Every structure is written in C-alpha cells, then in structure tokens.
Amino acid sequence: MENRTKPDDHLVWAILCTVCCCLPLGVASILQSTKVDKLYQAGDYHGAQEAADKAKKYAVIGAICTAVLWALYLILIIGLGVAGYLF
Q: How distant, in Å, are the alpha carbons of 17, 23, 28, 30, 73 from that of 59?
C-alpha cells in the first residue's frame, strides 16, 4: 500500500536557510517546498515526496556550507591575529 500522507514540506527550514545561511540554496529549497502541496493535491504522491526531499537537501547543504565558511573565516581571523602578534 502506498503512503498517502502529505510529506513535510520543510518550508520553515527553507526560509531559515534563506535568511540566515545561504541565499541561493535557500531559494532553491523554498521553490521545492512550495511544490509539495501542489503535487500532493494533484495526486502525485511520489513527486511530492521527491520535492520534500529536495527541499530538505538544499536547506541542509546551505546550512553546512555556511558553517564551513564561518569556520574557515574564524580560522583565518585567528591565524592573522596570531601572525600579527608574533611578527
């Protein structure tokens, strides 16, 4: 039997990713999350699940990219601070 429950559209995470993390991936996540309701109401349950999965994937990738960039930025700032202190 096929799962007929509406998948979570992850719209909150998409919006948070757009505002706080990575704009391009956040927008892609929002676009995918808005497709979930339309596909589900049209009866395309598999398509709705795929859109929900893509929305989550884009939001998570955006958050991870932002965390990595912040870590690299902090390493650079600390490295420059230490280098300035030593020389």
A: 6, 10, 8, 9, 21
Convert the pLDDT of each residue in 20-75 to its tens digit. Answer: 988 999 999 999 999 999 999 999 999 999 999 999 999 999 999 999 999 999 99
Angle CA 3–38–24, to nearest 5: 105
Query: To which residue do tokens 């996540």 refer?
Result: 29
d(CA 64, CA 25): 11
Distance CA(1)–CA(45), nearest Å, equals 12
Q: What string of DSSP letters covers 30-85?
A: HHHHHHHHHHHHTT-HHHHHHHHHHHHHHHHHHHHHHHHHHHHHHHHHHHHHHHHH
